[in-house]
Automatic annotation (TrEMBL):
Gene coding for it: LOC100832152
Gene Ontology molecular function, alphabetical: flavin adenine dinucleotide binding; monooxygenase activity; N,N-dimethylaniline monooxygenase activity; NADP binding
Cofactor(s) the record lists: FAD
InterPro entries xrefs: FAD/NAD-bd_sf, Flavin_mOase, Flavin_mOase-like, FMO-like
TM annotation in the entry: none
Family designation: Belongs to the FMO family.
Protein name per Swiss-Prot or TrEMBL: Flavin-containing monooxygenase
EC annotation from Swiss-Prot or TrEMBL: 1.-.-.-
Length: 471
């Protein structure tokens, strides 16, 4: 599919004509997106305040072994204990803050989750962002105060502590940047006939932490994305059998996965769960049947912005957040409301950085947006193209192979250098190498290097670029 990121007429004002505006901005969320948004906004001369409902910065990377948190101490995390990154660290980090192996941390190319949290904390400290963040402060409502040039936003929030939940407070801001993430509201496979009468246990990957509770059980894992494959492999270490369903693999068969030490791990190629029966049997579309104790849904998440529910301008329809110009600005409310971090199937941190730079530049007047009408036309054309290709709405923010086209477009708007080629190639190589046959093992195989081949050359280019930022 060719997405519409045409080279527009120059929308950037010359440096000399820059009518810099400085505004007070509420940033919702202090994960990777909120942190880099705060940095870019402040660099541009704005005054950001970052609201974070958790008690630390880092978002999903703050591991919580409670599994889903509680009403008293809501968790932002959906990570499992064994999680390692699915991208090489070099391609994961922000553009000007390399994700180096440092000190006594986890030096692996695909490090564990604690290392990513440490990196984000280092980023926050390095750019002096912690003072901008109000922890344990949840935004509950965002409403528009006035229209036109004097438009402002009333942000209602409450602060939580372990013992008390204070009354909601309010503040008025010139603009709101939503960085609240999209890994909190689980999406379940909802088309399994007979599931209500099935006696087993159903879980979503967001509450999975460790394999021990699945000792000697038969587990069906639905979904073959990074979490599904990691979790299936994790559980296979203790379970009696693990059955992994894969909708998109080419052959319609059921087979054991060729993973050393995991001869209890079955892959149902091209086959989802068809139905569940009262005696505990799960029937797959390939005709095979298994009596299972657990179904683990690794089927993704829903976008949700409850704090915006009073504003009918933005809606979420089958996981399409819209209407949004280039996944960021609602044409009718731009630039006073924006969203960072909606695209998925991407290397997120660099993309967040470019989106944030764009938002900051538009708010200051350094970068000009098209008119509301032009943005609306662009969004309509984009949606029409998706629909002509038969893509369901829920793929609207899935970048597939278009991430770098999008990033180049953003860089053009921001008048920044394009993302360098080694990043693009390293990302593509990571996708290629992460196959079902090498489920999990690709990380350590890559760590070993490829003896001076293409990968090693890309990593050498990365390190040369990083030297610019390593003082
Ligand atoms: P989040 O990290 O979710 O942060 C959002 C923040 O907003 C949270 O701290 C939350 O508490 C806060 N918040 C939400 N609502 C409110 C509110 N109303 N008021 C106040 N605060 C609020 N990316 C990679 O680059 N490499 C990987 O290997 C990788 N692996 C992943 C594995 C898993 C299991 C998951 C779920 C994601 C993975 N990702 C990976 C993607 C990851 O989501 C991004 O790296 C990135 O961290 C997302 O950042 P974010 O700021 O958009 O969202």
């Amino acid at each position: 599919i060719s997405l519409p990121f045409p080279p527009r007429r120059s929308l950037i004002l010359s440096e000399s004509s820059m009518p810099r505006r400085s505004v007070r901005v509420a940033v919702i969320g202090a994960g990777a997106a909120g942190l880099v948004a705060a940095r870019e906004l402040r660099r541009e001369g704005h005054s950001p305040v970052v609201f974070e409902r958790a008690d630390a910065v880092g978002g999903v990377w703050v591991y919580d072994d409670a599994g889903g948190g509680s009403e008293q101490r809501p968790s932002s995390s959906c990570l499992y204990a064994s999680l390692r990154t699915n991208l090489p660290r070099e391609s994961m980090g922000f553009l000007d803050f390399p994700f180096h192996a440092a000190g006594d941390g986890d030096a692996r190319r695909f490090p564990g989750h604690e290392e990513v949290r440490r990196y984000l904390e280092d980023f926050a400290r390095r750019f002096d962002l912690l003072g901008l963040v109000r922890l344990q402060t949840e935004v509950v409502r965002v409403t528009r105060e006035a229209a036109g040039a004097s438009e402002s936003w009333r942000v209602s929030y409450h602060t939580r502590t372990k013992l008390e939940r204070r009354e909601a407070e309010e503040e008025v801001f010139d603009a709101v940047v939503v960085c609240s993430g999209h890994y909190r509201e689980p999406r379940f496979a909802d088309d399994i006939a007979g599931i209500d009468a099935w006696p087993g246990k159903q879980l979503h990957s967001n509450s999975y932490r460790v394999p021990e509770p699945f000792q000697n059980q038969v587990v069906v894992v639905i979904g073959c994305g990074p979490s599904g494959t990691d979790i299936a492999r994790d559980i296979a270490g203790v379970a009696k059998e693990v059955h992994l369903t894969n909708r998109s693999a080419p052959a319609a068969t059921c087979d054991r996965l060729p993973l050393p030490g995991h001869d209890n791990l079955w892959l149902h190629f091209h086959s989802m769960v068809d139905r569940a029966e009262e005696d505990g049997t799960v029937v797959f579309q390939d005709g095979s049947r298994v009596k299972a104790d657990v179904i683990m849904h690794c089927t993704g998440y829903k976008y949700s912005f409850t704090f915006l529910s009073e504003d009918s301008t933005i809606s979420v329809d089958d996981n399409r957040v819209g209407p949004l110009y280039k996944h960021v600005f609602p044409p009718q409310l731009a630039p006073r409301l924006s969203f960072i971090g909606l695209p998925h199937k991407v290397a997120p941190f660099p993309l967040f950085e470019l989106q944030s730079n764009w938002v900051a530049g538009v708010l200051s007047g350094r970068i000009e947006l098209p008119s509301e009408e032009e943005m609306t036309q662009d969004v309509t054309a984009f949606y029409s193209e998706l629909s002509a290709r038969g893509w369901p709405r829920r793929y609207t923010h899935s970048m597939q192979s278009h991430e770098f086209e999008y990033e180049d477009w953003l860089a053009g708007q921001c008048r920044r250098e394009r993302v360098t080629e080694w990043r693009k190639e390293l990302f593509a190589a990571a996708l290629r190498i992460n196959t079902l046959g090498r489920m999990g093992s690709y990380r350590d195989e890559w760590d070993a290097g490829d003896g001076g081949g293409k990968l090693d050359q890309l990593l050498a280019q990365a390190n040369r670029e990083f030297a610019r930022y390593s003082c």
